[in-house]
Amino acid sequence: MKDSLAYKVLTAQQMSALEHDRVFEGAPVDLADGYIHLSTAEQLQETIDKHFAGQEDLWLVAVDLSAVPDAVKWEPSRGGALFPHLYRELSLDFVVAYSELNYEPDGSLRLPVTG
Questions:
Q1: How many CB atoms neighbour CB 38 within 10 A?
Q2: What is the pTM of this model?
């Protein structure tokens, strides 16, 4: 079975909109591609390095994929790896945790802690 949690990197403005509106329609790349790009924990650092290098005020959102099983497709992307793609808006109801993007003292990514 695939991971039940996936992650979305949001700008501070996008995070604020998600909190306020309770839904996130997608970043420009998501809207262009027709789905919201997500990453597993293992894929997340490469996603940040590739698409968010040098950006500050980023947030990590942990999404419960089991809450939207009919809207998630695992599709090949970088290097043929399967990535979770959400074919609907991201509702705050599917979010189990979120936090500002930070790193542990050893340099590893600090994931948002759930419940």
A1: 25
A2: 0.93
